[in-house]
Every structure is written in C-alpha cells, then in structure tokens.
C-alpha cells in the first residue's frame, strides 16, 4: 500500500474532528477550552501500513505506523480502530488508538498506551503511562487523563504509586 497520506472524503469516512488530536491538550482545562474550538470539518489525512474496513462491525482498522493528521493536529500509533454508525453515511462514534500513542499539536505532546475519543460525549481519555508535555517544560503524568470538551474541565488520576506527578515551569524575572 502506498504510504503517502490519503485524504478521506467525508462521504467515505467522515471523521468530524478526529478528536484524538484533541488528546494533545488532555490534562488542563485551559487547553481543553482551546481545543473545543477546533475546526472539525477540516480534511483528515492518514497513512498506515494497512487499512481494513469491517462493514458488518461498523468499524475501520488502521494498523502499522498509523499517522493521522487534521490541520495542525497529528496522531501516531501502532493501531487505530474507528467505530461508526452507518445510517446513510458513516458517522464516527468513537476512535481508539493503541500502541505507543503520540498526539501533537503545536508545542504540546501527549503520550500514552491507549487514547480514546468519545464523539457523543465529547470526552477524551488517555490511559497507561499518560503524559503531556508543553514546550515551556510543563509536564503532567498519571495513569489516566480525561478532558471534557463540553465543560472544559480536565482531570488526572494516579499513575505508578497511585499519584499524579508533574513539573511546572516558572517564568524568569528580569534581573533575578
């Protein structure tokens, strides 16, 4: 299969936001509010070693070096399962990425073992060694990161040892 990105047409696979990209901002409410304004109508490009449409199960599986892009958002994973309803046209219900999930947007990078976007609830969840890093050095680590795109409220729950950990950067002061 050609590894060059293929543009998905909305009629063929209408991934409205590929909200997985929103995972890049999972751990903070400020980031969630920014992502809630993401243009969900932008074209979605993908590249993978293999694609399988499972029509009877209402899902599409992308596997092997999966690379999904929408505007400035990018998702990379070993495997991505796209669940949809097929009522005349495909409408995405849920996207699950697994295997070294990396989501980037501008200077933010989110990583985890699994990333899930529930389109109906507008909730993004990353689990398993979930981490987000921002270009200025801010870092958050936990076992589970959840962002509610409706309310802009984000939460993190325990990682190893049952605790959330991280680092805040401190702005440099002139002369100090």
Strand content: over 45%
Order of H and E elements: EHHEEEEEEEEEE
Per CATH, which architecture? Sandwich
> For the record, what CATH class applies?
Mainly Beta
| Derived structural class | mainly beta
In the residues, how many domains can be counted? Answer: 1
Main sheet characteristics: 11 strands, antiparallel
- Indicate the overall shape: elongated
Number of helices: 2
| Low-pLDDT ranges | 1-37
- The tally of beta strands, per DSSP, is 11
Our measurement of the CA-to-CA distance between the termini, rounded to an integer number of angstroms, reads 57 Å
**Helix proportion range:** under 10%
CATH superfamily heading: Lipopolysaccharide (LPS) transport protein A like domain
CATH topology: lipopolysaccharide transport protein A fold
Output mean pLDDT: 74
| Radius of gyration based on Cα positions | 17 Å
Question: What key attributes describe this structure?
Answer:
176 residues; mainly beta; lipopolysaccharide transport protein A fold; 2 helices; elongated; disordered N terminus; glycolipid transfer activity; OstA family protein
Structural summary, described in words:
The chain has 176 residues and is mostly beta strands. It has a single domain (6-167), classed as Lipopolysaccharide (LPS) transport protein A like domain (lipopolysaccharide transport protein A fold). It has two helices and eleven strands. Strands 1, 2, 3, 4, 5, 6, 7, 8, 9, 10 and 11 form an eleven-stranded antiparallel β-sheet that branches. The longest helix is centred in the N-terminal third of the chain and has 7 residues, at 29-35. 34% of the residues are buried. Mean pLDDT is 74; it is low at 1-37.
